[in-house]
Design goal:
The chain has 311 residues and is an alpha/beta fold. It has ten helices and 13 strands. The model has no long low-confidence stretch (mean pLDDT 92).
Length: 311
């Protein structure tokens, strides 16, 4: 089973366990700092631990950060990464105690990310599924690139998964209209609850999902952090609660959820099982400082233990 992963790769500088968010002119000290591969890598690495073959269409600079990211992922992917002289994207993540976080990102080569290198690659068509990730982090990919990518996947019989992330323009009308226009090409649209409400302008999740269905959505998978996740289809609604863990670093939680969800769906799991597996994977990842990505057996054990606990 091969999955195409299309989207931005970053180097992530993570400052974790911050007590208070500083104001301009202030300086706070932290004791925990990590530099690691981020963005799409937060899906690549857990998928690799699950034994999934991945073809990665992305971009990295030849700078030191880009070289470090490349070394971290190169042995677990089929490499379709374009290397640029423009430096790699660098994202600084400040994570508060309890898991709340914000990001400041250096754009680097994000504006060099175009769709031509995907369309010209004949291997794209032989995958079982395609994930288009981080649409708003590659501004010049644009609606034409997104639609071309998703249309190519659909034309070759693939399942399509889509995670846009948050709009960097504050959810302008243009950003909303673009995402809504992609929905007929997406089998599984995977926003978090905050993104969903911003996208639709609705006050509640159920109302927001109805708007997406009116624009052609097939399935909407809503990530709700420690509250778990919900799946909405035209015929059913499935809710799965989260797993109680002490969060150390929530960076990449939703991306790890994506990995677990895709793995389960592509292996024929029912929706409730797919959500439970994805929730358990994400919960494990956010609770660990090192060796973040669990193997299949660890996740399945967590799911079984949680089922026993709630009986």
């Amino acid at each position: 089973m091969m999955i195409n992963l299309v989207g931005i790769l970053t180097a992530d500088l993570i400052l974790a366990q911050v007590k208070d968010r500083p104001d301009f002119g202030e300086e706070h000290m932290v004791d925990n700092m990590t530099i690691r591969a981020g963005a799409l890598a937060n899906t690549i690495l857990p998928l690799a631990k699950l034994g999934v073959k991945q073809r990665v269409f992305s971009m990295l600079g030849r700078d030191a950060f880009g070289e470090d990211v490349y070394r971290e992922i190169k042995d677990v992917i089929e490499d379709k990464i374009v290397r640029t002289e423009t430096p790699s994207v660098l994202s600084v993540s400040v994570v508060q105690e309890g898991g709340a976080r914000y990001f400041v990102t250096y754009s680097g080569n994000a504006y060099a990310f175009k769709h031509g290198f995907i369309e010209s690659d004949p291997s794209f068509a032989d995958a079982k599924a395609t994930l288009l990730y981080g649409y708003f982090l590659v501004p010049d990919f644009g609606p034409e690139g997104a639609k071309a990518c998703l249309s190519m996947a659909k034309a070759s019989g693939q399942l399509t998964f889509f995670d846009a992330n948050s709009a960097i323009d504050g959810w302008s009308d243009k950003s909303r209209e673009e995402i809504l226009s992609f929905l007929p090409l997406i089998d599984y649209f995977m926003p978090n609850d905050e993104e969903l409400l911003h996208l639709t302008g609705c006050a509640g999740v159920e109302e927001a999902v109805a708007v997406l269905f009116a624009h052609g959505a097939s399935s909407v998978i809503v990530k709700r952090g420690k509250a778990g996740a919900s799946a909405f289809t035209r015929d059913d609604v499935v809710h799965q609660s989260g797993y109680p863990v002490q969060a150390y670093d929530t960076t990449g939680a939703g991306d790890s959820f994506n990995a677990g969800f895709m793995y389960s769906i592509l292996n024929g799991c029912e929706m409730a099982s797919a959500l439970a597996f994805a929730n358990a994977l994400a919960a494990t990842v956010v609770s660990r400082q090192a060796d973040r990505y669990p193997e299949v057996g660890e996740i399945e054990l967590a799911v079984r233990e949680e089922r026993v606990a709630v009986r």
